[in-house]
Amino acid sequence: NDEELRALLLSELDLRLRRSAAAPPTTPAEQLVIEAERIFEERFASGLRIATVAADLGISPSGLRAAFTRLRGTSPQAALQAVRLRHALAHIRNSTLPLQAIADLTGYHSVSHLTRHIKAATGSPPGALRSTEFVLNQ
Q1: DSSP characters for 78-100?
Q2: Where are the alpha helices (DSSP H) in the chain?
Q3: In the prediction, which pLDDT does 6 show?
Q4: What b-and-e string marks burial along 18-45, b requiring 16 or more CB atoms within 10 Å of the CB?
Q5: Residue 23's pLDDT is what?
Q6: Are 102 and 114 within 8 A, CB to CB?
Q7: How far apart are CA 47 and CA 86, in angstroms?
């Protein structure tokens, strides 16, 4: 379980490092995807919808999906979900916040929605991922 979490976090870090080392965006599609990723990071907790992001960027949702698929090999929804998941895992590992508060802070509709996504990504329920340091100090 910790190995899966480490692998997920290392994969995210590797992706970010490769992107930062790459040449600056040169195509409108690259700029669009980078701007969408910035919006995901800024507004992931607000119940953000892909259609809203596309409208904010002046493109259709299908155009945004096509750009993401071509440039990132994933959908914008999956990219947004990865941002939410990363933030939720950080809260779970580094805080004593109740799961409802974490769900609210990270854009999940409910604790069961949060739990389902955490378990799918890590193979463990959120409680099993809590840092023993925080659990012992409660």
Answers
A1: HHHHHHHHHHHHHHHHH----HH
A2: 2-21, 28-43, 50-57, 61-72, 76-94, 99-105, 111-122, 126-129, 132-136
A3: 75
A4: eeeeeeeeeeebbebbeebbebbeebbb
A5: 59
A6: yes
A7: 16
